Amino acid sequence: MLIFTLYFFIVVVAIQLAYYLIVFGKFAFAKAHKSNPKKISISVIVCAKNEDENVAKYIPLLAEQDYPDFEIILIDDASSDNTLDIFEEFEKQYSNVKLVKVKNNEAFWGNKKYALTLGIKASKKDYLLFTDADCYPTSKDWITTMSSQFTMHKTIVLGYGAYEKVAKSFLNKIIRFETLLTAVQYFSWAKIGQPYMGIGRNLAYKKEEFFNVNGFISHIQVRSGDDDLFINQVAKSKNTALCYLPESFTYSQPKTKYKDWFTQKRRHVSTANFYKPFDKIKLSVFYASQLLFLLLATILLAFQYQWIIVLSLVGFRYSFTWITLGYSAGKLKEKDVMYWFPIIEIVLIFTQLNVFITNIFSKPVYWK
Question: What is the pTM of this model?
Answer without folding.
Answer: 0.94
